[in-house]
Design brief:
The complex is a heterodimer. Chain A has a domain of 192 residues: MetI-like (MetI-like fold), CATH 1.10.3720. Chain A contains 14 helices and no strands. Chain B is mostly helical. Helices cover 72% and strands 0% of the residues of chain B. Chain B contains three helices and no strands. In chain B, helix 1 crosses helix 2, helix 1 packs across helix 3 and helix 2 runs antiparallel to helix 3. The longest helix of chain B is centred in the middle third of the chain and has 39 residues. The radius of gyration of chain B is 18 Å and the shape is elongated. Chain B starts with 24 loop residues before the first helix and ends with a helix. Classes of the chains: A mainly alpha, B mainly alpha. At the A-B interface, helix 1, helix 2, helix 5, helix 12 and helix 14 of A face helix 2 and helix 3 of B.
Chain lengths: 337, 130
């Protein structure tokens, strides 16, 4: 059981981390080239108008004043209004609309990775140096080596263009409209009791999830294999077998729990790349999640949207790693000490 | 002695990675001073080229960048460092990384960044006004 002190300490440490990330994002945005006032006013606008826009946005104040104002806004979860992407709309509203889309994609990608990666890794370790192991290793190596921006269009070409069995883009067919409740399309279609829409959503999400899941699966199976190979050689595994326990039970009961600790680490660390991967996947499959929002906001120097989006990414990443940290101590209580 | 090369205090008799070693106020003051000096140099070098506001703004942005990086990584090292080193030991890693060493290193960055940003703020108030 995880102690309250352990959890509280880690929760408290999230605040300096998020404060630091907010500060870094603010600094990088103001050091990078590009003037939001010019973007908003337009390339052909007069200098007076640009100055007027700059003054209206408070961008002509000294930077330290903007920083203090920014911290005040972040502390109250008010990221201001979008300059360009959804002009005039509160950033928190934009994030509320878009975040579930990316979370759904990332979770499904992670689920697919775990669903295929873990059994493949275990099988590969148990059947070490057999054809199963060699095939799984080659598959994993290919999965790690193939970038999303290549595998995505390739799968679209194969399944959408040549075979014509899967759609190329979007989250649901244009014939369906489902009132968003959770923002997660699969859940919303089920809540609406619209099975045809659910089926359409599954078909639409299949390719993006496969693209995201391939990398996760490959990495997790490699990690699971090496970790399991290590564990299988341990004395306690041999003792369990010597006492007459079946090999499957030994692996699942004693091996999996111990082999899982480094895999959990990878899952936590890889969540960041999963979010990064979601940015690419959303772009390739034209899904309007937080990834495409971020790219759009950076291109248009929309400071409030970039700051809000990166902070949300940071919160998600730190929370996932907090979860990973707590899982370690459940799997191996010595870690808490 | 491990880590002592990076300490400027006389009482450096224990490794930098030891627990219970907290930098004295004087040492922190030196780091802040070093940051302040860097902030002043950057603002001073940029001043003839970009003018008062741009030079102090750029110096402030660089200072808070260092400060923010220091705070974020310090928080990460303090909050998750113990688990990281335990997992590392569990995996049999030979790295000499430790929570305390990371905490101290990132604290140095934080203080330097704070001094840097602070000097830039003072320079901005003096040269540009509020």
């Amino acid at each position: 059981m995880v102690s309250k002190r352990f959890v509280l300490k880690r929760l408290l440490m999230l605040f300096p981390v998020l404060f630091g990330v907010a500060t870094v994002v603010f600094a990088i945005l103001h050091l990078s080239p590009g003037d939001p006032a010019v973007v908003i006013a337009g390339e052909r606008a007069s200098q007076e108008f640009v100055n007027q826009v700059r003054a209206d946005l408070g961008l002509d104040d000294p930077l330290w004043q903007q920083y203090v104002r920014f911290l005040g806004e972040v502390a109250t979860f008010d990221f201001g209004q979008s300059y360009q992407v959804n002009r005039g709309v509160a950033v928190s509203q934009i994030l509320t609309d878009r975040l579930p889309i990316t979370i759904e994609l990332a979770l499904l990608g992670q689920f697919a990775g775990l669903l295929f990666g873990l059994p493949l890794g275990i099988l590969s370790a148990v059947k070490q140096d057999t054809w199963t192991d060699h095939l799984s290793r080659v598959g994993a190596l290919s999965g790690i080596s193939i970038p999303i921006y290549w595998s995505g269009p390739l799968l679209i070409l194969l399944f959408a263009q040549f075979l014509g069995v899967l759609p190329t883009s979007g989250r649901i067919g244009s014939a369906y409209f489902v009132e968003p409740v959770t923002g997660l399309i699969l859940v919303d279609t089920l809540l609406a009791g619209n099975l045809a829409a659910f089926q359409s959503a599954v078909i639409h999400l299949l390719l993006p999830v496969v693209v995201l899941g391939i990398y996760q699966m490959a990495l997790l199976s490699r990690m699971m294999r090496s970790s399991m190979v290590e564990v299988i050689r341990q004395d306690y595994m041999r003792t369990a077998r010597a006492k007459g326990q079946g090999s499957k039970i030994t692996v699942m009961k004693h091996g999996l729990r111990n082999a899982f600790i480094p895999v959990i680490t990878v899952i936590g660390i890889q969540f960041g790349s999963l979010l990064g991967g979601a940015v690419l996947t959303e772009t390739v499959f034209e899904i309007n999640g937080i990834g495409t929002l971020l790219v759009d906001a950076i291109n248009r120097s929309d400071y409030p949207v970039v700051q809000g989006t990166v902070l949300v990414f940071a919160v998600l990443y730190t929370l996932v790693n907090l979860g990973v940290d707590l899982t370690y101590s459940v799997l191996d209580p010595r870690i808490e000490q | 002695m491990t880590g002592c090369a990076t300490r400027s205090t006389r009482e450096c008799e224990r490794p930098l990675t030891d627990r219970d070693i907290r930098p004295s106020g004087r040492t922190v003051g030196r780091w802040i001073g070093l940051g302040g000096l860097l902030g002043l140099v950057v603002a001073g070098v940029l001043f003839p080229v970009t003018g008062a506001k741009q030079s102090t703004d750029t110096s402030f942005a660089l200072g808070v960048l260092l400060f923010g990086f220091g705070v974020a990584t310090w928080g990460g090292a303090v909050g998750f460092g113990d688990s990281m080193s335990t997992v590392q030991n569990h995996l049999g890693g030979e790295s000499e990384w430790s929570r305390e060493g990371a905490r101290q290193a990132f604290a140095v960055l934080t203080w330097i960044g704070a001094g840097w940003a602070g000097t830039a703020v003072v320079a901005s108030i003096l040269l540009v006004g509020i």
